[in-house]
Fold these 4 entries.
Entry 1:
Amino acid sequence: MKNKKIYFDYAATTPLDKDVLKKMLPYLKEKYGNPSSIHKFGREASAAIDNARIQVAKFLGCKEAEIIFTGSASESDNLAIRGLIKSLRRAKGAGEKIHIITSQIEHKAVLETCNDLEKEGIKVTYLPVGPDGIINIDDLESEITPETDLITIMYANNEIGAIQPIKKIGQIIKKLNQNKEHRIYFHIDAVQAANWLDLNVNELGVDLLTLSGHKIYGPKGVGVLFARENVKISPIITGGAHEFNLRAGTENVAGIVGMGETITKIKNQKSKVKSIEKLRDKLIKGVLTKVKGSKLNGPIKDEDKLPNIANFSFEGCEGEALVMYLDQAGIAVSTGSACTSQALTPSHVLIAMGLSDLEAHSSLRVSLGRYTTLAEVNYFLKVLPKTVERLRKISGR
Ligand code: PLP
């Protein structure tokens, strides 16, 4: 029991793929040149970045020149939103209104960026979601005005796995943009979707798309922003001509190499969707039958959710305490977003779905991945009911 080490937090981060690490290592050791240098060392590093750009562009079905490497998905979200707004402001001139539509359940990298822009006078509409965590297309259409410049919606949610109707939104925007001088831009945060859903940018009809290396078995500290050729964004980090003048700073060569390599492996993983779904369903069924007062949060239908995330609420249990007790039993889970789980405010995602503060505080996210086994799920199902009981006794419920 003591030596158990079960990782059920793949939505927070994924282990680095061994083959990916192998490809990265030379760029941390002997191939250490600065890609901006014109000598052999530099050219070697710069060629590695070019190769990674080809790999990512192939995955997204876009041009290499449309791929910008950043330091994280949070940075990519910021560059997409702030970069576009900055460029629009300059083009439109002061006094012209700017309107963004997003949802209430976005990752904080989008949500807080929008909050921040609101303070600068930009109008932001935060779309509500249903109890399943999915936005209503009619709500979206009714909020679009002639002033709407940007729609930014996440493809799949990191806490509940809910998938948003991105293709449909893409089609609506495309139609609205026809015969119009004014253009609506479409950004999606595809960080959690990348392992499971097709991300061909033309089929989705998106202008800007965000990815993160460490959620797809690549390294931490590297992100991608796809920015369509004819979409003008301004840099938010200045100081060099790197990344087509859109992101200054010497490139994280090894990280970028890792990003390119890991992305080529995603296709193989897609064949594993069914087996992950099976493990997840066994886990969900087990939890709901073995733990009284437990409830599944998020979409019900398979087509509306990612195959690897399950979010529960346990009556009379503090989510944070549950995480700590399970950790003692060797099981790593979380209460929601890794970035906000240290805060004591209840999850904004669960609250937007209509859960009470109490229900949101009693939530637990279990996220599975490439290396999850049936034995791990069974062990979890053995430990969880006892842990919940123990906690309920302590809190006198
Ligand atoms: N967007 C989503 C949906 C996420 O789940 C995360 C990470 O939790 C991020 C953005 C931020 O990613 P990064 O850690 O690369 O900044």
Entry 2:
Amino acid sequence: MTLDDKLIEQVTRLVMEEMKSSTAEESESNSTCGNCGIFDSMDDAVKASEEAQRKYLFSSMEDRQKYVDTIRKTVLAPEMLEKLSRMAVEETGMGNYEHKLIKNRVAAEKSPGTEDLITEALTGDKGLTLVEYCPFGVIGAVTPATNPTETIICNSIAMLAGGNTVVFSPHPRAKNVTHVLVTALNQALQEVGAPANLIVTVREPSVENTNQMIQHPKVRVLVATGGPGIVKMVMSTGKKAIGAGAGNPPVVVDETADADKAAKDIMNGCSFDNNLPCIAEKEVIVVDSIADSLIWHMKNAGACEIKEESTINRLLQMVTNDKGGPKVEFVGKSAPYILNKLGINGCENVRVIIMETKKDHPFVMEELMMPILPIVRAADVDEAIEIALVAERGNRHTAIMHSKNVDKLTKMAKLLQTTIFVKNAPSYAGIGVGGEGCTTFTIAGPTGEGLTTARSFCRKRRCVMSDALHIR
Ligand code: NAD
């Protein structure tokens, strides 16, 4: 008997599914924390979170920091870090294991804890007034398939540091890896004496469950890390909403840049986790006089250039859908995988697929989230910045520039108004990987919190003591 490819693929998928759910169930059944934060219904999850919040209000700041440290320690245990990174790639079918390791590690190490909550004190003849960052209560957080565990790690640290509890509604494609992480965090938090259910989720993530969470009266704040649809949805609820939406980061390279370094930085940023991060380089606009040199250096650093118009068109047809957006089956896939599907073999070491295009080509204007990087030539740096402004599409998310001209660097930063602007480095320097500053995977452009930390998830409250406690 011979099996055709389709049947083999179906059987493999079924076996993989079975293995994945048994891994998740296994880790739940080996646990000592009951349901370990995983609930059959969204209503039960929210109710448990509210109950936990009532208790959590009376935890000391020292305890809160202990819980943050516990989250860090749990994720950073080598076995857990490897398991989360491996499962995320296998389950979602997107991204790169080594890069997920880096992303999960940096989320656990560099998301700020309670030290982020700096109290303001005003003193004078009338006494002492304190302004403190206080919890909102139960936060409903929607998380993406592209950074499934990274987002849960950094949100959990920041939200718990701020005194909140959190209900996660993950992408259904990341169900099992979410369960493994939430179970491990609940188990570890229970072992250090935390109230149960500070971090919860549902057994079957779905659009219906997300809608129920969004509308639930006990959920005080909504945080959406995802595409424009979900961000718009949480922003139109009438509740406090934090929206971390899509990007389409342009890179401008001008004639003053170090072409070799710029090429290496662009290749490193663009290929990171197969281009899944919302901050990753999505199109290059280069001043004509340095373009040939930049492309030459990019090829030396692992780029494959497609020159034939017909092949570029075939690639476009292959990776985009009827609406012009990326086809799900190619999002987060590697360059060799994409080339292979295009019928170009033997490219195992290719990191990024490049091609020259016009400034309004769909590869430039669409957020593809795969290592396909269009290159647009501009006559001079001013024209390059104008093209970048249009290509960024008003997301005001992330932009990158390679230049030694401080005036032009300043011009681009002012015009594009992105939350993150990286100069002379790969995009990930903007989230603390090879650049100064903390890390987050929830970058809230639309609602203005920027790179979210504990204080982004807090209310400011004033506490006034009249006529006393000033000591000057
Ligand atoms: P997505 O928008 O498809 O899904 C994000 C989340 O929203 C998922 O949990 C999904 O289940 C939920 N969702 C989507 N549509 C919904 C609907 N109609 N009703 C209820 N729930 C819905 O995005 P994705 O593929 O998971 O992630 C990629 C997108 O997220 C990209 O656009 C990327 O730029 C963006 N993103 C932004 C940030 C940031 O910090 N700004 C971080 C990561 C990802």
Entry 3:
Amino acid sequence: MSSIKRIGILTSGGDCAGLNAVISAVVKSATQKGWEVYGIHNGTDGITNKPHSFEILTVKNFSDTPWPRLSGSYLGSLNKGVKMESLEEMTKKFAIGVKELGLDAVIVVGGDGSMNIVSNYCKGSLVKVVGIPKTMDNDTPITEFSVGFHSAVQVCTSAIDSLELTARSHNRALIVEVMGRDAGHLAMHSAIAGAADVCLVPEIPYTINGVINKLKEIKASGRNHAVIVVSEGIKTESGNLVSTKKNMVGEAVYGGIGQYLCNEISSRYNEFQIRSNTLGHIQRSGVPVAFDRLLASMYGAKAVEILDRGEDNKMVVWKNGEVSSVDLSEVVKAGTTLLNPKSQYVKVAKELNMYVGEI
Ligand code: F6P
């Protein structure tokens, strides 16, 4: 048994489906241990800003409402791209905040960036920390799956299904641009699930002629339509990002590669009408699918169990069908996990006769 009496839980970074199921699982497990749970509003802002912004969470918040079944974050989230003070300044504010709130531990639900930031903040105080990975990009290292990924794959796969049907009616090749930043997991998983004809990901080089050759092959086979999945993080053929927009911390804001491909393909090949669709933030907000809710429940309970054992500085992970944990320092050291071009996903896509680039 640990000496914990009160924990905080916060969601950090871009939202995704399944966050509320995580919060609910943490509240239920922590309540069983007799701990009090503070739900921190808007990521670490609820701790570092004054007045502190939080609410006491009880099982009733979730069992008497549909919240665990909904996407979005009940607590609000702090997105990257917001200008913050220096790490030193924020660490001090965080230490003061956790002391004033009387928190013995903080559970952070976030991606690799949030794990890095919050584990640094925690070094400045005695508060314990455990991370739960969430991101529709599925690029948090070490864990096979982050909460939110499979729900986003479902949204993208449904979009591919819908586009395939309208493409058939109009002799079209329809492009769908999906999120994922520099990782092609979301594009590749949904392209395989949706039986797309082409999938372009940032990790594998491609050529426009490679895409056109695939369209010619489809035409020659007698089929009059095609679906092309494009990850937002791929660059133009000459290696540039299409968007020149930056967020407030100077990171590139992605988007526009679908339309670029549409223009380039149309200018060189006209046997199909080409149109581009960008799915955008709808991918973050689908109904949380069963696997994400299962992950959320298992991760939430595991995070509480870790703290109860007196351990901290861990992130829960899913590996080989089981939940375990790793040191947060390992997660921070590993950085972002990209799609491995040698993975079984890419191999299978090629075996299914999908054009996945020059590999
Ligand atoms: O990291 C999650 C993610 O949805 C990315 O896939 C996407 O590029 C980005 O966030 C969008 O961020 P924003 O909400 O700031 O537009």
Entry 4:
Amino acid sequence: INQLIIRERDRSTLISEACRLLVANRGYRAAMIILINEEGGPESWAMQGIASDSSELAEMLEQGTLPSCCGHVPAEEGVLLVENRKTVCKSCPIADMCADSQSLCAELAHEGKSFGYLAAAAEKHLDVDSDEKNLFRETAEDFAYAVNVMNIENARKKFESEHEKLQSQLLQAQKMESVGRLAGGVAHDFNNMLSVITGYAELAVNEIPQENPLHSDLQEILNAARRSADITRQLLAFARQQAISPEVLDLNETVENMMKMLRRLIGEDIDLSWNPSPGLWCVRMDPSQLDQILANLCVNARDAIKDVGRITMETSNITFDEEYCSDHPGFKPGEYVLLAVSDNGRGMDRETSDKIFEPFFTTKEVGKGTGLGLAMIYGIVKQNNGFINVYSEVGRGTTFRIYLPRHEGDLQHSKVPAAKDVPRAGGETVLLVEDEPAILKLAGTILKRLGYKVLQTSSPIEAVSLAKEHTGEIDLLITDVVMPDMNGRDLAERLLTGYPEMKILYMSGYTSNAIAHHGVLDEGVNFLQKPFSSRDLGIRVRRALDS
Ligand code: ADP
Ligand code: MG
């Protein structure tokens, strides 16, 4: 038994082996070890010899009750030789089986702590004297010592693995955060340049007749610039710096409206099934973000399917309680709407799925994948206080689950109809403030061509004096949000005192806290995302003026 105690590192093997040895080598008719939990109830046990197959005893232990002899062990002595069977064994299901043996029970005690009980049935003829009782108690204490060592060891292991898990989660979060900041910064500066490229190419293309070969050259420049703008848009989404205008949405309805587009995207060889769950709660998010999420998930699913296959989209309501969240790091308790997209494609291994949300991670050939799709989805989901989770098995398929927080409230249909043609000026005056000279010049040119009277400056301080000197009305202020001397919002506030009727249109490559909280625009703010086309600018200006 001492060897067993030193060698064995598994609790259940320890106690079952110990019982076997006690019966085989010490001549007990039965041996039983019960380990107890924090509350003092039976947690695990082992038995050998008579009564070891008693289903009544097992059932009693399952239900959390200890055999009655355990409760009669005198505390100071630590061991009991049952003499008064009538009282001690009264409610015990194996009382009859022990009746013609001498029953011993000792506490597994170590340093004042109890780990459970050791019980045994000795032959009637054996002389159970005080030496025998002491030996029995010492054996129980040795077990207690071994169990204590194992508990400490297990706690240490658990702590270490949890620590490791947390550490790697933290590292991952930090990495995503810094990559996000880098990506967002690059995208922001790049956006300004793209605005200029797109803007001038658009202006030029409109001046040149179609049959001129320069026309199609310029058209190519425009196409490339638009594709680049797509990339910066995705980077900004990943960095959570994309300006959004959330609306209350019924996901079932929004997804339904996208089905035609998604079917076209995935082609004819792949089945797309759609299982909306009835009575779905509302969410509040920017519908264009939902487009981005679904389009990207479906394209990825399509790419993972070799020839024919199936993509399934479903929705449902789901509530996470504290308990669920403590088992699932990163999840917060609350009510959520689940949007799941599954495919039966090739799936991915652990190494891949650990990296998929990182920007530029792709397993696709050069030119096929950018590695930005899931990074963008990750950013969008975070920006909307949701979670995303992926489950995948190699060769079987993948499921992405997106949980978006429930929005308490009703649907409100307040969509502005999209303008077809770029609306022109009706004699209005616009004050344009933008610290990037190339964009200032471009926007000024576009606005003048649309027929607006334009006052323009690259400095907010100068804008204040321009406004003071100006004698007529100023109908609209178009201003960058982040500028060196004064931010766009402060500028607007100062100008509003002189021109209380003036409308405001902010433009920016990303949102700043001046007009948004965590990228979510304040209610009623007119906003133009850079890079913009001349068409975007024309439409937004008209909309702001008419708002
Ligand atoms: P991209 O599609 O440009 O490669 P994504 O960020 O959209 O970039 O995806 C990153 C990688 O994640 C993919 O290259 C692919 O390896 C993996 N992946 C994404 N979705 C799936 C899926 N449904 N099944 C298998 N692998 C996937
Ligand atoms: Mg993709």
